[in-house]
């Protein structure tokens, strides 16, 4: 049974948007709030929003947000009576839940026993089979030797999934399409699982091809009541990480909803579940559904459920944690309208979606009817490399799916984020694809729609005209009165001579396309811009120095958001499409250093998980050199050239930043 100890203050053991989200609801309900923060998060919004905030350590998660002792000590110092774990970090750590209870604190979540029951996929699946919940055919036995797994695989048949029993998030997961590939998949999945979760236990499941990922939100109280709040469709995923979520599922029938909801409630009852939880299912093309796993915490995508039910799920968590019964019955749960959420990530979409870090030079979340933004970012704040790359969640709701989708597209077009590589343009592309518009997306959607990875469209003519005009104005401002501003733009001469700009315009990075533009100011605020022998008149109609402006191109007026990330660089957004350009005539940045060479640098911030080579080793092009871990995923770095390893600058366990030199190969 859940503790019924009353509390009037809550420590939020998390960071970013979920910490802000929990603190806001807690304060609205009259609770005193305590935040925790690492040294990297000292200036983060969640720190300022809470009544009190306590430093818990250096940036690394193991020394701060993942250290139970530091969290409990912060609760003692802050006088908190309860701890809300958010999601991620310690939210599904049964030992931490026990430690909270042992310290006389209310853990705002399920019991440690319930977390334990669902924390291991193999044990959870055995429980669900006993409870009569539909499960995917597979192997979940404690026997883990390769002989037993290979024998089970033959019985299950290909294709099948290899999954880490102790975790989620796509780690330790492999699709095996042919059984001869199974030994390698078992070794890779076991290694990744051991590194990520400390356990190499695996399960096997029959692969459900092109399914939908549909999950049910459940709530239980300490009085034996359990209800569900409908479903969410989370099928649009990349590497088993959700990208877009919506409620309700576009294809679920009322009968399927009732059956799936009943199965989810049965799953929760089987472990005496208390608090917010999510039971996840795969829905196959024939309409059959199968238990996937249960997340014993609040989900990232909970806002879409809030939008269609009108309920505040965090408020419900606090209500239940205080020992009160659920305030509504299953019959009183009503779903209305449609809601869609996208996750705005700091990631380099053109570079296999690798996590990114940087400083938010410009951050402007969208506003409008039916729009909600959950975030924990302020303009000028550094986005550190140590944590999950999600920056914000943008949610749109409407009376029907298409109105919600249309509002979300418009909201993304209005979202401005410069200074940090992000997936905003990719999300727009996803929402406008025909299969998504039709509600036909499955878990294979991104793989099918973007088979060669994501490449943004090349800059449009307007982007180039605006970039040159804005950089011309920037050069004039920086030069000051009486100084030659021309040198900043790549030219010299009198005012009548046009400034020359040259931009690389091949967005795919496969060519060397350069575009030349010349700008001349004819009178204050008026510019004659020449592009490909055609002249355009640009007029400055007003705006701030480095943020946004109203301009006219040949009499066509519109707003432009912009920033100057570095020397010769400009980032701008027009009609919701953003580009970053560099005037190569004024840029001193080196181009192409290290490409195809023996110099190996870190492609992202992260840690060195494993070294496969040593100084003196001979390698061929394609040889695996080392494994990095970043944002909960493993990335393997391979040699681009053949030769001898002449230097290794890192050791296993080292933290590295994007661009750091890792090793050198002499050819």
Automatic annotation (TrEMBL):
InterPro entries: ATP-grasp, BC-like_N, Biotin_BS, Biotin_carboxylase_complex, Biotin_carboxylation_dom, Biotin_COase_C, Biotin_lipoyl, CPAse_ATP-bd. One of its GO terms (molecular function) is metal ion binding. Signal peptide: none annotated. The keyword Magnesium does not apply. PROSITE patterns: ATP_GRASP, BC, BIOTIN, BIOTINYL_LIPOYL, CPSASE_2. Residues 125-322 form the ATP-grasp domain. The keyword Transcription regulation does not apply. Keywords: ATP-binding, Biotin, Ligase, Nucleotide-binding. It catalyses: N(6)-biotinyl-L-lysyl-[protein] + hydrogencarbonate + ATP = N(6)-carboxybiotinyl-L-lysyl-[protein] + ADP + phosphate + H(+). Pathway: Lipid metabolism; malonyl-CoA biosynthesis; malonyl-CoA from acetyl-CoA: step 1/1. Gene3D superfamilies: 2.40.50.100, ATP-grasp fold, B domain. Residues 6-451 form the Biotin carboxylation domain. Residues 597-666 form the Lipoyl-binding domain. Pfam families: Biotin_carb_C, Biotin_carb_N, Biotin_lipoyl, CPSase_L_D2. It comes from the Bacteria. SUPFAM superfamilies: Glutathione synthetase ATP-binding domain-like, PreATP-grasp domain, Rudiment single hybrid motif, Single hybrid motif. Its cofactor is biotin. Acetyl-CoA carboxylase is a heterohexamer of biotin carboxyl carrier protein, biotin carboxylase and the two subunits of carboxyl transferase in a 2:2 complex. This protein is a component of the acetyl coenzyme A carboxylase complex; first, biotin carboxylase catalyzes the carboxylation of the carrier protein and then the transcarboxylase transfers the carboxyl group to form malonyl-CoA. This is Biotin carboxylase. It comes from Parahaliea mediterranea.
